[in-house]
Design a protein that fits this description.
Blueprint: E1 3-6, E2 9-16, E3 20-25, H1 36-42, E4 46-51, H2 68-81, E5 87-92, H3 94-105, E6 110-116, H4 124-140, H5 143-154, H6 157-160, H7 163-175, H8 182-193, E7 207-213, H9 221-230, E8 235-239, H10 246-249, H11 251-262
Parallel strand pairs: 3-4, 3-5, 5-6, 6-7, 7-8
Antiparallel strand pairs: 1-2, 2-4
Helix pairs in contact: 1-11, 2-3, 4-5, 4-8, 5-7
Length: 267
Amino acid sequence: MPSVKVNDIDCYYEIHGSGHPLLLIAGLVSDSQSWKPAVRELEKDFKVIIFDNRGIGRTRYPKTSFSISTLAADTIGLLDKLGIEKSDILGHSMGGFIAQEIAIEYPERVNKLILANSCVCVSQKNRSMFASFLKILEQDQNYELFIREFFKLIFTPGYLNNKEIIEPAIKSAVQYSFPVTVEGFKLQLEAIGKFHSQERLNKIKAKTLILAGKNDIMVTAEETQLLADKIPGAKILFMENAAHSFQVEDPGSFVSYLNKFLLDEDK
């Protein structure tokens, strides 16, 4: 699979399908492969671009501090290299931070904007949780424990209790050839820790959908509502029986919501 030189990184990416471009930006601890359950359906109608952010997966990068603005510039650089002037952009969680930054600073590059389980900044509660996950990686060096604890944060109890699904998922994550590293995790945590968009969201001009899992324990309904309230004309939808990573847990419903927003209205 290809990589391309973008700024000071070698950015890993994949393109699936054809048609109007749809760029998917992954969240914290996630890389391009987190989109695969949804890509199988989305590629029927879109040219889907997925990639590994700086700090994760197969993207090679200098081991120096970066910001959400850096990640947004990386993303625009990738679109430039692919010859894509304008795209629908979907950002999940931290990817939603990046998508917000793009919509604010590069408005001409965004057709429609979808912010999935995202917010205006990292809460103190989440800062504390992420610090505990970092401790597991740094001190315990128990990657399976890291994955199990993180899964508790992003999936519904019903999904977690389905051993036929969750145990193979954990095994696959533990055996993945491009795992989360202490260094990459630290750098991404530093980047999200400095991000705060609330006072700039009125600059977003793209037609925007705020999509959230009703049972998300990472991003609360109040945080989601604040994000929607600050973006002019934003539409907000809550997925029933869905937690933080609904694109993995229930890709069918997730894609259905996206298609209603992206396809049922004029571009």
